[in-house]
What does this fold into?
Amino acid sequence: MKCSDIQKLIPAFLDDDLDNQDLSLFLSHVESCSECREELTIQFLVSVGLKRLEDGKTFNLNKELDNLLSDSRRKLGARKYLVFISYVLEIAVAALFALCLLLLIAL
Ligand SMILES: [Zn+2]
It folds into this structure.
């Protein structure tokens, strides 16, 4: 993906609204591209910073952004694991189904 494509995904990322594939591409891109990382920081500051100002709480947005990125990475890992498990289950079900068919034919 190009930088412009990645930057279009930033609002969806901040809303936790990216699918696994986009999230994976997004995370690895912002880790290696300083331009997109900076754009993400700015949009994060604007969206989260404004909310915090309204709450009147103190905040450390750089740390929060780091937390958000590492949380997203962890979530992505968990989601990929779930996808993997669901494939395994599907294969198991298909195998059982095939076995039942074979048994029916054999009888
Ligand atoms: Zn970039």
